[in-house]
Amino acid sequence: MHFLYHFCNWLQHTSVGTAVAESDWLFPAIETVHIWGIILLVGTTGVLDLRLLGLILKNERVSELHHRLIRWTWTGFAVMFVSGSLMFSSEATKMYSNGVFRFKMLLILLTGLNAMIFETTAFRNVAQWDTSSRTPVGARLAACFSLVAWVGVIAAGRWIAYW
Using an 8 Å Cβ cutoff, are 59 and 101 in contact? Predict the structure, then answer.
């Protein structure tokens, strides 16, 4: 972990980290973009999750909905990743020891693993249940985990400033 702290210290003192930290408007502007990325990512995954749970869009094919949303999901992730990295660079050493930040990163990692597991298991057989309003147990479990975890990511993101 010693190396990680030194990396954070270096990052925070780069021209980008310093510029974000010293500007009166740059951090809030980046944070606004970050929120838009979260809205795009969590909004699209939330729609798919609610469909997998059979709560909305029951007449929509899961595969078609997935196809229409996935590029927006990845766009939201990219926006969130870049903007989050810029904000992180401005206070990297502070975030290094922030337990809520670490929890948020853990949740993001777990949501990624959840999505990967869903894509490589239940979704592989989507043709068998594509039009069904009742999806397989694995798909419903993945959807429940996703919804809860993304709420946790958002809550942790808000709590970082107060920890």
Answer: no
| Close Cβ partners of 50 (under 8 Å, ≥ 6 residues apart) | 56, 57, 143, 147
Residue type, 132: S
Contacts of 83 (CB under 8 A, 6+ apart): 30, 31, 33, 34, 37
Burial of 67 per CB tally in 10 Å (0-12, 13-18, 19+): exposed
> For residue 154, what are its two tokens?
């958002």
Helix 62-90 crosses helix 15-22 at what angle (to 10 degrees)?
90
pTM of the shown model: 0.92
Distance, in Å, from the CA atom of 163 to the CA atom of 148, rounded to the nearest integer, reads 21
Task: Indicate whether 61 pLDDT > 70.
Answer: yes
pLDDT in tens, 12-29: 999 999 999 999 999 999
C-alpha 27/C-alpha 17 separation (Å) is: 10
